[in-house]
From TrEMBL:
Pfam families: Ribosomal_L13. SUPFAM superfamilies: Ribosomal protein L13. Keywords: Chloroplast, Plastid, Ribonucleoprotein, Ribosomal protein. This is Large ribosomal subunit protein uL13c. Belongs to the universal ribosomal protein uL13 family. The gene is rpl13. It comes from the Eukaryota. One of its GO terms (biological process) is negative regulation of translation. One of its GO terms (molecular function) is mRNA binding. It is found in: Plastid, Chloroplast. Its main location: plastid.
Amino acid sequence: MNETFIPTSDYNKRKWYIIDCQDKRLGRVASLSIALLAGKHKSYYHPSLDTGDYVILINAECLTLDRDITKFHVFSPGRPGRSLKRLVNALPERIIEKCIFGMLPNGFPRKHLSKRLKVYQGSQHPHSAQNPIKLEELK
């Protein structure tokens, strides 16, 4: 008889990973971050349990986007001259967070996995006490 392995709380040791976004593509960083946040890189991954890790993204302003897209948002429709506003890509942290948040599955993971994502401009971050593991294999 086959027995399904379900990890217990002994397997719930969360690691911290750090990814440098210097000259990296947005989609590649986002897909790797989601796999780390969900714990899919672990051998004892189970979809019904949260076995993911923390992810720190540094140098967010140096991220490479495919193209410059001007985004517009309608704040108050029906008001001529004031309703259509152009959104400026001035906050690279928001761009990365919105991309990763949109790629997460609906329900419980979307709400809780996004809290373990830390995005910073520049190479300084306040999480050095957690001894993050630096990932270099991202192309």
